[in-house]
């Protein structure tokens, strides 16, 4: 039985650009290997996705059954990460990236960052990533580190193959050199630079044929204007898009390929030219430095008109140089892999298992790291002091009971406070809770770290094991990788303090009731910190709240999303804190509360990454809640990111801390 995959691309799958041609060749090669590939194009505008695009991608993915295997081309995946996130848990998704969306030429800094962040958010939800060059692999990893938006999906490089082609004949003596440029007319491809360079090359010794669709009307007009201004109409021709037979004929009559791109994720036309034995005159932009083998052509710095003019002039007038480069191209031709080999590599990449470190683990670790310093400044010191006092009284009482029941009173007194207190940290994450509490408690401590995520748990253990108490004593640390659904775990029944940070907005009323009953049964203290209240707003540079209808709309969508079942029942979101207060009061616990909001200041660079992450998280959740409004939400997100980047906005997020102590103790 053949394996079935669905390839989802933006727009018409039959477009004749490098990325779509790559997809078509890979699909054919996979089908030859017995895989059934269904290719589906989605309507709408990409990569600056509009509502039509969001709805089309959402509808396409919704038609696929659970566990269906899907390849989403990067143009669609990176443009709509919220839509991808909605289906990530039920579909086996592979992302195919040709080059990062934000690396397109001509983007403003704002749009470049927007596309980079959008694509990285999408990668956090896929099981594997396939890229078409080693350069793109390095670039994507560097972007993930730069933007602090990690993903854990394994990356596999599957370079394009070539179609075996006859060698193009060398230029006959005393005939013009025929230069061939194959690239869509867009700023990144640099045809304007090429025309300006050709204007400096003596005419009569060459002609240049440019093939490629006019994808950017303004840029196409600019190139034609340059041709007219330099009076190159008899030597440079823009042929537009053509079919395969016309292009093959152009290769057979060419003497060199010219690709003046500012940036390429691979540069398939370079290897296509080499497959015809043609030398290549190109740039070092992006992956081109790697794609063109040494000795098979000439490379110049992107955008350097003078350097490109010299390269073209030398090639057209130096027969010995042409002979040398043609020999280099012929040698490179022999080492080119075909599309069948690319298909083998691609099919193997599709079988790559997802990382054992889930995307959620890595994203959570990054999010927890971003917020840790702000949490430290927000948490209530007074409640920790009250907990320390309660522990003092508890340990003194226990020691007195030992003395009363022992004939060795003097010996027993000397062992006062020798038994460590035991703290169970629910949903410990990477150990931020122990980082804060351990040095502020002077008692000996035994920490029970509890989380369902093994990767985070390992990090928490490593960090907590290095801590000391307020009296510089080492901690005892153990870990329990279990679901938080079950709070009857022995680690919770044999502890003095149950604690958690930034957790209870994810749980249900039933879970809170069970936690309260558990604490009451064992007479345990409960310290729950940084519980969201569901209230947040943007602030001006004077830290005054801003009142915007769109912010309230996003807040409503986010709060609705927070109430989805996160694995612990129907979540209470911002209502969880008050529900816990009531539940503990029901058991006659003394409950103390403290307001612990985040106050992220406009223009404070150290807080900028956290503010960006908050905005992106709110937008992602809102998109999952209302996918039909994806473009409106994206506009909101981008406007807020811009104002935060400009130092015009800060963020206030409501949190509360809670300490509940048994009423008859301390």
Automatic annotation (TrEMBL):
Residues 425-521 form the Methyltransferase domain. GO terms for biological process: carbohydrate derivative metabolic process. Keywords: Glycosyltransferase, Transferase. This is Glycosyltransferase. The keyword Membrane does not apply. InterPro entries: Glyco_trans_1, Methyltransf_25, SAM-dependent_MTases_sf. Residues 173-325 form the Glycosyl transferase family domain. One of its GO terms (molecular function) is glycosyltransferase activity. The lineage of its organism: Bacteria, Pseudomonadati, Pseudomonadota, Gammaproteobacteria, Oceanospirillales. It comes from Vreelandella andesensis.
């Amino acid at each position: 039985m053949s394996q079935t995959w669905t390839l989802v691309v933006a727009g018409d799958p039959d477009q004749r650009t490098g990325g779509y041609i790559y997809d078509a060749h890979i699909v054919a090669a996979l089908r030859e290997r017995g895989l059934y590939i269904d290719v589906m194009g989605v309507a709408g505008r990409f990569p600056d996705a509009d509502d039509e695009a969001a709805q089309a991608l959402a509808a396409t993915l919704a038609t696929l059954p659970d566990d269906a295997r899907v390849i989403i081309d990067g143009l669609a995946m990176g443009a709509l990460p919220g839509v991808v996130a909605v289906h990530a848990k039920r579909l086996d998704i592979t992302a195919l990236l040709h080059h990062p969306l934000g690396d397109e030429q001509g983007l403003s800094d704002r749009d470049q960052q927007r596309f980079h962040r959008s694509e990285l958010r999408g990668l956090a939800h896929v099981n594997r990533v396939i890229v078409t060059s080693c350069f793109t692999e390095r670039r994507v990893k560097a972007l993930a580190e730069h933007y602090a938006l990690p993903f854990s999906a394994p990356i596999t490089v599957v370079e394009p193959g070539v179609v075996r082609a006859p060698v193009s004949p060398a230029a006959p003596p005393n005939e013009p050199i025929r230069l061939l440029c194959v690239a869509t007319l867009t700023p990144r491809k640099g045809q304007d630079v090429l025309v300006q360079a050709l204007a400096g090359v003596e005419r009569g010794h060459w002609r240049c044929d440019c093939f490629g669709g006019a994808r950017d009307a303004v840029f196409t007009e600019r190139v034609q204007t340059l041709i007219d201004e330099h009076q190159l109409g008899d030597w440079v021709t823009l042929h537009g898009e053509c079919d395969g037979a016309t292009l093959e004929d152009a290769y057979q009559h060419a003497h060199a390929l010219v690709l003046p791109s500012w940036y390429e994720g691979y540069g398939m036309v370079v290897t296509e030219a080499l497959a015809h034995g043609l030398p290549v005159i190109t740039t070092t932009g992006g992956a081109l430095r790697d794609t063109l083998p040494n000795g098979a052509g000439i490379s110049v710095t992107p955008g350097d008109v003078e350097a490109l003019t010299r390269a073209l002039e030398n090639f057209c007038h130096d027969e010995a140089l042409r002979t040398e480069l043609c020999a280099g191209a012929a040698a490179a031709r022999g080492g080119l892999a075909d599309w069948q080999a690319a298909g083998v590599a691609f099919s193997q990449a599709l079988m790559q298992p997802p990382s054992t470190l889930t995307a959620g683990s890595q994203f959570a670790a990054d999010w927890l790291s971003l917020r840790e310093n702000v949490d430290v400044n927000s948490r209530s010191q007074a409640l920790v002091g009250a907990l320390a006092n309660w522990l003092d009284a508890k340990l003194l009482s226990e020691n007195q009971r030992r003395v009363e029941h022992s004939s060795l009173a003097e010996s027993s007194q000397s062992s006062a406070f020798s038994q460590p207190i035991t703290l169970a940290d629910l949903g410990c994450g990477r150990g931020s809770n122990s980082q804060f509490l351990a040095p502020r408690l002077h008692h000996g401590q035994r920490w029970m770290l509890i989380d369902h995520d093994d990767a985070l748990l390992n990090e928490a253990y490593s960090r907590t094991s290095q801590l000391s108490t307020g009296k510089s004593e080492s901690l005892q640390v153990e870990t329990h990788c279990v679901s938080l659904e079950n709070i009857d775990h022995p680690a919770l029944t044999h502890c003095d303090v149950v604690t958690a940070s930034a957790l209870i907005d994810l749980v249900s009323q039933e879970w809170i009731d069970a936690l309260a009953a558990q604490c009451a049964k064992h007479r345990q203290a409960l310290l729950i910190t940084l519980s969201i209240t569901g209230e947040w707003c943007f602030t001006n540079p004077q830290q005054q709240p801003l009142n915007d209808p769109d912010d309230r709309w996003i807040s409503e969508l986010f709060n609705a999303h927070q109430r989805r079942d996160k694995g612990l029942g129907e979540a209470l979101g911002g209502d969880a804190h008050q529900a816990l207060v009531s539940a503990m009061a029901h058991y006659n616990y003394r409950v103390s509360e403290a307001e612990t909001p985040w106050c992220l200041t406009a223009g404070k660079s150290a807080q900028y990454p956290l503010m960006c992450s908050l905005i992106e998280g709110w937008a992602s959740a809102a998109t999952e809640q209302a996918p039909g409004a994806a473009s409106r939400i994206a506009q909101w997100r981008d406007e807020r990111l811009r104002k935060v980047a400009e130092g015009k906005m800060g963020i206030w997020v409501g949190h509360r801390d809670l300490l509940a102590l048994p009423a008859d103790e301390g």
